[in-house]
Amino acid sequence: MKLFLRLSYLGTAYNGYQVQGDQPTVQRELTRACAELFGQRCDIVGCSRTDSGVHANMFCVTVAKKGSDELQTSIPEYRIPLALNAHLPEDISVADACFVSGEFHPRYDVKYKEYIYRIYNSPTRSPFERDRAWHYPKHLDDAALANMQRAAQLYCGTHDFTSFMAQGATVAHAVRTVTHASVCRNGDVIEFRVAADGFLYNMVRIMTGTLIAVAEGKIGCQQIPDIIAAKDRSRAGMTAPAHGLYLNSVVYENIPKETL
Amino acid sequence: MKLFLRLSYLGTAYNGYQVQGDQPTVQRELTRACAELFGQRCDIVGCSRTDSGVHANMFCVTVAKKGSDELQTSIPEYRIPLALNAHLPEDISVADACFVSGEFHPRYDVKYKEYIYRIYNSPTRSPFERDRAWHYPKHLDDAALANMQRAAQLYCGTHDFTSFMAQGATVAHAVRTVTHASVCRNGDVIEFRVAADGFLYNMVRIMTGTLIAVAEGKIGCQQIPDIIAAKDRSRAGMTAPAHGLYLNSVVYENIPKETL
């Protein structure tokens, strides 16, 4: 058995999730905290990589003794979140812990993931949304939102999303199934939600940039299928900045949504 | 005519609103930014004082040339918010500017103010609520919330609120009229909203601490009138921490809610 953790983090202070030498990353903090709490060097395997400045409302990892598929500890699982949090910085928080099979893999066993992209749509910036939403000052009216929503709907389905992948990214194949995509406004915040069985590098940020191009009338929503079919990054919109992006949920076949 | 500004700020980095020597305060930043933008030394008068760590969704100030009731500038008022924001740190943002009579006073002319106190009620901390809500880990169920709501209702009316004023604070008289007080839950966040014609020092934070004592069964909600009548700080609950408190709105008789 190895340990499965659900956590959240504010990505502002980190160079993304994945360990990169001595740079501050979420994985590095988790590796240090687990070594301190469990008294052994640990392998931490994550559900995803997130870029510098990207946040997670839910991120999943497994923890095992270095080089093994096992973690042994006398700490009962219900105590692990608070115990680990005492070793973690305040911008990372473990919410939930349980033991899972040694064969479980937090990346390969994902059924689907959901991302949220937050746009702060107000003429002046908000001190509370700094580093947490993309500030887009020009008002997006109901007609613009309706067009964004129509375009988002056209992302749904099984497609080759090469047009929505960062140039230079390498991947075995670029076919992904988007099961949900929607745009809604809540006060000054516009949220784009998208769920899929997997995501290409920068996919949600390019989807968001394309929705903004639709809102601005630079791309018609009926062009989305053509942009997808073109398999050409240059046809889609800009890459929206990292700090508006949140990994929001990660769903597995065999792990209940709430284990506590 | 002098300049009237509505602004918001994240109070985390500041020793409150009011200038205190060389310490970082919101008023100090505004004074510096106005001097830079308008090319003259300015008096900034605020609607209130907020403590270290307290936030404002809306805070109002007037700006006039030092020692006068006038501000002269060739910058049109609709351009002032963005122009000032370029001189302010990112945790302060001016939303709105207009010219008002030189006799207008942003503190004495307040009709009522509303505060929100945010409680983050979840067993584990949230990276996103750090410094922005009081983390109260023990679950407050529907019965506890109903008692808090009943107690909040009993704050309404015109009372001497000495029991809800920090010990040692001095004030001409402690009678205030609370026009609205309510408690509601939105996901993991419990919000206490309270509006009044004025507030005593720490009044909202002591009201919040008292509501928590009610939720915990340490104070019965029917005791609230006795606690008010006692005019004795020791009868009310603890002072909730500063970082959950937001000045949410400031309403004047003669200034429209939206000037832009």
Rg of Cα set of chain A: 19 Å
Average per-residue pLDDT of chain A, rounded, comes to 96
SSE order of chain A: EHEEHEEEHEEEHHE
Shape of chain A from CA axes?
A: globular
Most extensive chain-chain interface: A-B, 23 and 24 residues
What structural category characterises the helix and strand content of chain A?
alpha+beta
Quote the CATH topology of the largest domain in chain A. Alpha-Beta Plaits
CATH superfamily of the largest domain in chain A: Pseudouridine synthase I, catalytic domain, C-terminal subdomain
Oligomerization state: homodimer
Task: Count the beta strands of chain A.
Answer: 10
In the CATH scheme, the class of the largest domain in chain A would be Alpha Beta
As a percent range, the share of strand residues of chain A is: 25-35%
| Residue runs with pLDDT of under 50 for 5 or more positions of chain A | none
